[in-house]
Every structure is written in structure tokens, then in C-alpha cells.
Design a protein that fits this description.
With about 220 residues, this protein is an all-beta fold. Helices cover about 0% and strands about 45% of the residues. The chain has one domain. The strands form three sheets. The chain has a six-stranded antiparallel sheet, with no helix packed on it. A hairpin with a 2-residue loop joins strand 12 and strand 13. The longest helix has 5 residues.
Length: about 220
């Protein structure tokens, strides 16, 4: 295995928090997304910290905004990078209703696998899901948190709403990034695969009252 797979640890910690209300009733969306260590041997983790009854039905990590860096998911049989790849697999004892995953060459990005989506039958509040998959770039293959800055994250909830966030920089840590929820997406995950992402125009607030109420961050060691 090449030395790029053995480089040091990073922590990418993003906590997404979005409150929305209808009349007197309110629910709370809080999705945590972390990458702790390099993508070769350290898992990605998504946490559902939302109000009870709000399940995650699907989420997606979209690397297309990083096309200039040739970021892609490097499974064993992919053409992402010439080094050995690592296939997607869930880790840990709690599969939280994991159904399936898909890694695709999405429209409008590079000619490689740059869009990961994962589906669930019921990823409930208070649960977390971790998985491994290699992410590489061109030319050296090494990917750290700051390399993922600008990537998009979608999450579809059991209320039928799709939310979207973006990975941003972490102050004081050049090797890290954090996921910040921006609002409601105007497209579903299925439609996002076949459309070119436009971060400046894809948020649709409509008549829904949205307020970014809190962003929880842990220190990055």
C-alpha cells in the first residue's frame, strides 16, 4: 500500500442545526457529520440528533464542486485513482436500517465516481451510522478535510424534506473542514445526481420559517 494511505489523522467535525416551525408546532433538525482521520482507514460518521420521530431516509455526499481537484470516491474497480481503492462498507454494530448505497459518476462533474448516496429504512433520532470508503484526488491521491471544502451534503428526512449543507473551513486547523447546514434544497437526491449543482441558487425557503438556531462544534485535536 502506498504511503499516502498512512498519513496522519485529521478531524472534520460538522454539526448541522436547523429549526423549522409550522404555526405553534416546531421540530428540530440536527444532523452531525464527521470525518476523523484520513479516508483510507478512518470512518465517516453521520449522527441523527433531530427531534424524535424525524428519521433520516437518505443522505448524499457530492464531490462535484471540487472538480478542479479531481476528487472522487476510489473503490477497488473505479477509475478514480491508480492506487488501490477501498470499497464502501458500513462499520460498527448498529446498521440503523441501512438498505443500500450508490456511488455514481454524476452529471456535470469530472469523469469519475463523485456522488455517494446511502439509503435507510429508518435511521432514527439518537442513532449514528459510520462507513469506510476511500476518497482520492489527482495527482497525489491524499485527501484531508480541507480538500473536501466546498463539497455538498444532502439529507432527506422522513418528513419528506431534503436539506442541504456545505463543507467549510475550520478556523485554526488547515487540515480540517466542517459541514454547515444551509437550508432546504430545491432538489431531491435522485434529481441532484442528474443535475449540475449550483450552490448559490439551490436553496429554497418558500413559506417555511427557517432559523439556524445552533451550530455545535467540538475542538479538533
Amino acid at each position: 500500500m502506498t504511503s499516502k494511505k498512512n498519513r496522519g489523522f485529521l478531524r472534520v467535525l460538522g454539526i448541522l442545526a436547523l429549526a423549522f416551525s409550522f404555526n405553534a408546532n416546531a421540530a428540530f433538525i440536527d444532523i452531525g457529520f464527521t470525518i476523523d482521520g484520513n479516508t483510507w482507514d478512518n470512518p465517516f460518521t453521520v449522527q441523527n440528533n433531530s427531534s424524535a420521530g424525524l428519521d433520516i431516509t437518505q443522505f448524499a455526499l457530492d464531490l462535484r464542486p471540487n472538480a478542479d481537484s479531481f476528487l472522487c470516491f476510489d473503490e477497488v474497480d473505479s477509475a478514480c485513482h491508480p492506487s488501490g481503492g477501498l470499497n464502501f462498507r458500513s462499520v460498527g454494530s448498529d446498521d440503523v436500517g441501512f438498505l443500500s448505497y450508490s456511488i455514481e459518476n454524476a452529471a456535470g462533474g469530472i469523469d469519475a465516481t463523485d456522488f455517494l448516496s446511502v439509503a435507510f429504512s429508518g435511521f432514527s433520532s439518537g442513532e449514528s451510522f459510520s462507513w469506510l470508503v476511500d476518497v482520492d484526488d489527482n495527482p497525489d491521491g491524499s485527501v484531508f478535510g480541507n480538500d473536501l471544502i466546498g463539497s455538498l451534503f444532502y439529507v432527506e428526512m422522513s418528513d419528506g424534506i431534503t436539506y442541504q449543507g456545505v463543507i467549510e473551513a475550520v478556523a485554526g486547523n488547515d487540515d480540517a473542514g466542517q459541514l454547515v447546514l444551509q437550508g432546504i434544497s430545491s432538489t431531491t437526491i435522485a434529481n441532484a445526481v442528474t443535475s449540475v449543482p449550483e450552490p448559490s441558487s439551490i436553496l429554497l425557503f418558500g413559506g417555511l420559517l427557517l432559523a439556524l438556531t445552533r451550530i455545535k462544534r467540538k475542538s479538533i485535536i
